[in-house]
Every structure is written in structure tokens, then in C-alpha cells.
Design a protein that fits this description.
153 residues; two-stranded antiparallel ribbon; globular; mainly alpha
């Protein structure tokens, strides 16, 4: 059984998913392209194929011109929210005695928040700029070939 099967058994007519964990930035762009194609009237398999092609052929210059600024702004907002949640988790953890039963759970939650904040910061500060410098940053199949369509058209 797969997650796709679960959605289809629950009544979904079709499911777009990936066969493996795909880079977050590539997935975001793929989703944008896919939904643009669906709104333009393409069926699921056609939209999936066209979105994969668009992602594969996207240049760093196009990315910089069309998506960089909006993504940077969105990541700044997400980073601010993540920082607030990290600070709240730290405060909650620090308000608990180290030998208390819930301390380890609070510590784990704090560490999870720190990792998320670092991931967002890294994407904003390094990943976006690196994509702009590459000729075709998502041309490798690992970025686009894992997406599949299951179900009816």
C-alpha cells in the first residue's frame, strides 16, 4: 500500500506525488508550474509532464528574474516565524527543571525548531543565490523525474 492508494481509496480522482524526497525548492517550483498548467486546461498527466519539462529547462537567470524576490520575501517571513517559535520553545524548555520528566520532550522540540530555522536560513542565504548562478539548476533528473500521477485523468 502507498499513500497514493490511500488517497485514491478515500475517493480522490487523482494524486500527484513523488517517488522519493525531492528538494524543497524544486518541489515548490514544480507545484507552481503544475498548477499553472492545470489552470490552463491541461489534464493531470499533461500538466505533470509539462511542469517537469519547465523545471528541467528553467535557467538560473529566469529563476532570478521571476521567482527570487518573491521567494526571498516568503522565506524572510517564514524565518521570522520560525525564530519566534524557537524562542518560545527555548523559553518553555528553560522554565522546566532538567530532571523533570517533560524536559527531554521540550529539549527535543527546541532542537527540532533550531534545525528548521537553520534550514530556512540556509535556503534563503545560500540556496537561492546558488540557483541564480547556475545555467540550469534543476536539469538533473533527481529534481523533476520523481513526480508521478496516479488515478484518473
Amino acid at each position: 500500500m502507498t499513500l497514493n492508494t490511500g488517497f485514491l481509496c478515500a475517493g480522490a480522482r487523482g494524486v500527484i506525488s513523488s517517488l522519493w524526497s525531492v528538494d524543497d525548492l524544486a518541489t515548490s517550483l514544480f507545484s507552481l508550474f503544475y498548477h499553472q498548467k492545470r489552470k490552463a486546461g491541461l489534464n493531470r498527466p499533461q500538466a505533470l509532464q509539462k511542469a517537469q519539462q519547465d523545471l528541467r529547462h528553467l535557467t538560473g537567470k529566469e529563476f532570478e528574474r521571476e521567482y527570487y524576490q518573491e521567494l526571498e520575501q516568503l522565506l524572510n517571513e517564514k524565518l521570522q516565524l520560525a525564530s519566534q517559535k524557537t524562542a518560545a520553545a527555548k523559553q518553555e524548555r528553560d522554565g522546566c527543571a532538567e530532571n523533570a520528566p517533560e524536559y527531554q520532550q521540550l529539549q527535543a522540540e527546541y532542537e527540532k525548531r533550531v534545525r528548521l530555522e537553520e534550514r530556512i536560513s540556509g535556503t534563503k542565504d545560500r540556496r537561492l543565490k546558488a540557483v541564480c548562478q547556475q545555467e540550469h539548476p534543476f536539469e538533473h533528473p533527481e529534481y523533476w523525474s520523481g513526480f508521478i500521477c496516479a488515478g484518473l485523468r
